[in-house]
């Protein structure tokens, strides 16, 4: 199978461990094991872990964890869930289960590159629905109707969106469902940032799995729950889809690690505390970033309504990769170039990796912008 290089992952792998200030990070600032256990009131974790035999464990994920995942949704049960190696594993399994050569697959752009590069590698008829400022980086529904011809196999969306932070509410998602139902398509909604909305007590938007009989939700512990190191995600959807996914999953997963499963369960049993922390970080971080954007004449944006990242448009005569490389070299600050997401002319910034990092990083970016503007004059 030939597949395109994964632009964002290659960029992150190359630079995230050598930068001084990481403003390309997409997770809500990661928790330590100690912080997680403090939240959970676990004073003697050894008593739980030492007797744990390191077998494969329950193949589809522990009943404890799958019930907790189901509890994140309105209408899902244990049978509607399966545990995966991160959301990246969940997304790949859905595409490899549903998509065959020649199938029409519609994917929004920008989004996580899996959602168009994997179907493309299979030989699918990929149709790109470009998100633009005109619609606030939401899918153009009329354009989607034109692309969603009878027999379309899959519509892949991302809500909240990475990298723009745009958010489709329940009413908007229901319009997407109407379009999908009319042509018989599945909807895969990558919901890895679900729970980070800027408004609402729980920060949770409706899930596609609860709205549509052919709706599939993927999620993980990485972004909202600050536990990317667990490498644990899930799929929620119709039982027949879960069974079909499990056939493919047997070939590349078997099971997730028992320790990952155990710590993920602890986290979801204490999700209210984690979400409270995440909301404080995401909402204060976006406020800081918003004030900075307002003061920068060379930067414009559509302000995010959710997520942990924003897409910035810059007014300088250089490529996004040159911008990011020069910024990293001269100021030690890491951003992600739009070119890595097929969105040249933009930059992706993460604003939830700690206020001190954000303040200092934005200060240095301002210095860089002033110097670059002088050089370009």
Overall pLDDT level? 97
Uncertain spans: none
Helix percent reads: 40-55%
Strand order of the largest sheet: 2-8-7-6-5-3-4
Shape: globular
Distance between the termini: 47 Å
Total E-strand runs: 13
Task: Using the CA coordinates, give the radius of gyration.
Answer: 21 Å
The chain-level structural class is alpha/beta
Q: What would your notes on this structure say?
A:
43% of the residues lie in helices and 15% in strands. It is α/β, with parallel strands linked by helices. The N and C termini lie far apart (47 Å). It has helices spanning 7-15, 33-40, 45-49, 63-70, 86-98, 114-122, 141-147, 170-183, 208-211, 239-252, 258-269, 271-295, 320-331, 355-376; strands at 21-22, 81-84, 104-109, 125-130, 154-158, 186-190, 215-220, 233-236, 299-301, 309-314, 333-334, 336-337, 346-350.
What is the gist of this entry?
It is built from 14 helices and 13 strands. With 377 residues, it is α/β, with parallel strands linked by helices. Strand 9 (299-301) and strand 10 (309-314) form a beta hairpin.
List keywords for this structure.
377 residues, alpha/beta, seven-stranded mixed sheet, four-stranded antiparallel sheet, 15% strand
Outline the fold blueprint:
Elements: H1 7-15, E1 21-22, H2 33-40, H3 45-49, H4 63-70, E2 81-84, H5 86-98, E3 104-109, H6 114-122, E4 125-130, H7 141-147, E5 154-158, H8 170-183, E6 186-190, H9 208-211, E7 215-220, E8 233-236, H10 239-252, H11 258-269, H12 271-295, E9 299-301, E10 309-314, H13 320-331, E11 333-334, E12 336-337, E13 346-350, H14 355-376
Parallel strand pairs: 1-11, 3-4, 3-5, 5-6, 6-7
Antiparallel strand pairs: 2-8, 7-8, 9-10, 10-13, 12-13
